[in-house]
Design goal:
about 300 residues, globular, 10 helices
C-alpha cells in the first residue's frame, strides 16, 4: 500500500484537527455513551464498566486518538492499525509527546502499548501491524465498540469498501471516517493550467494504492450509499482545508505532489506541469498562494 511518512502526517495534523466536523464528532461520542459497554477487568466486574474499545484503521501516528480521546467518556482501549513499521514506531513517540505537553502521565504497558492518564480516565494505545487488504476479515469485529479512520478511504477500491461495509454491519459498529478527499481543490490566484493539473491529479488518485483501483474522490459518497442501504444512519459534513501563505512548507509539498502525480498520470504534460509548479512556488514564496482542499467527514451509526 502507498502510505504517508511521519513528517507529512505531522504537517497536516493541525489542518485536519481544525477541519474536522465537531458536530459529527459530538454525535459519535454521544452514540458511544449510549452503546452497551463490556465488563471491566477482574472478578466480579460489572457490565458497562470496561473501557471503550476503539479500532483505528490506517492509524498512522495516532492523530485520531489525539483528537477524540478527550471527548470520549471514561477509560478507552485503542487499537491503532497500520502496515508501515516506521509509522508504528512513531506512534508511541508522538503520543508520549502529546501527553507530556498536557501534563498527563504516560507509561509503557506490558504488551508494548502506552497507558495515558487523561484526567481520571486511562487511555491505552496499542499499535498493531496489519495488512488491511489481505486481512480485514481476520479482525474480530465483536472485540470493538467503534471504528475510526482518517484520510484513508479514498485510497481503497470499491471491492474493499464493500468488504468493510459487510464487516461493520456484522457487528453493528459505528464508524467515524474523517478527511476523505472529495475532489474540490482550488488554487488562488487561479492559473490557466489549474484545470489540466487537477484532471491529471484526479486520474492519479484513481490508481492502485494497494487495494485495487482507488475510489478516490467518490469514496465517501459510495460508502454513504452502501451503509445507508445496509441500515446504518449516515451523515456527512464538509471538512475542508484552507491553507494560506503562513504554511509555506505544506504548500510547497502540495505543489510538488500535484505536479508529480499529474506528470505520472499524463507524462506528455510533464513540461507544462513543471512550469505550473514553478509559478505556484513563486506564489508561495511571496505569500500570495492559498489552497483549498475539499474533504468530507462521515458518521455511520447502526440501527437501533
Amino acid at each position: 500500500m502507498t502510505g504517508f511518512d511521519a513528517d507529512w502526517l505531522r504537517l497536516r495534523e493541525p489542518l485536519d484537527a481544525a477541519a474536522r466536523s465537531e458536530a459529527l464528532a459530538t454525535r459519535f461520542a454521544a452514540a458511544l455513551r449510549a452503546r452497551p459497554r463490556p465488563a471491566g477487568q477482574g472478578a466480579g466486574a460489572a457490565a458497562g464498566t470496561g473501557p471503550l474499545r476503539i479500532l483505528d484503521l490506517a492509524a498512522g501516528t495516532g492523530a485520531n486518538l489525539r483528537v477524540l480521546a478527550t471527548s470520549l467518556d471514561g477509560d478507552q482501549a485503542w487499537t491503532l492499525l497500520d502496515l508501515d513499521p516506521a509509522l508504528l514506531g512513531a506512534q508511541s513517540v508522538e503520543l508520549a509527546d502529546w501527553a507530556r505537553r498536557r501534563g498527563w502521565t504516560c507509561a509503557p504497558c506490558a504488551d508494548g502499548g502506552l497507558a495515558i492518564g487523561v484526567g481520571s480516565a486511562t487511555v491505552r494505545a496499542q499499535g498493531r501491524a496489519l495488512d488491511l487488504q489481505q486481512a480485514l476479515e481476520t479482525l474480530d469485529a465483536g472485540a470493538f465498540d467503534a471504528v475510526v479512520t482518517t484520510a484513508f478511504l479514498d485510497l481503497v477500491s470499491e471491492a474493499w469498501l464493500e468488504r468493510l461495509c459487510a464487516w461493520l454491519v456484522s457487528a453493528r459498529l459505528p464508524l467515524l471516517a474523517t478527511l476523505t478527499v472529495d475532489g474540490r481543490r482550488d488554487w488562488f490566484p487561479p492559473l490557466p493550467e489549474d484545470p489540466r493539473v487537477d484532471r491529471a491529479f484526479r486520474l492519479h488518485q484513481a490508481g492502485d494504492k494497494g487495494f485495487g483501483a482507488s475510489l478516490g474522490i467518490g469514496a465517501a459518497a459510495h460508502l454513504a450509499t452502501r451503509l445507508t442501504a445496509l441500515g446504518h444512519q449516515v451523515s456527512t459534513a464538509r471538512a475542508d482545508w484552507r491553507i494560506d501563505g503562513g504554511r509555506r512548507v505544506l504548500l510547497q509539498r502540495l505543489i510538488d505532489e500535484a505536479a508529480g502525480a499529474a506528470s505520472e498520470a499524463e507524462p506528455e504534460g510533464r513540461a507544462a506541469f513543471q512550469a505550473w509548479a514553478a509559478m505556484r512556488t513563486a506564489h508561495a514564496a511571496d505569500g500570495r498562494l492559498v489552497l483549498e482542499v475539499g474533504h468530507l467527514d462521515l458518521l455511520a451509526l447502526p440501527p437501533g
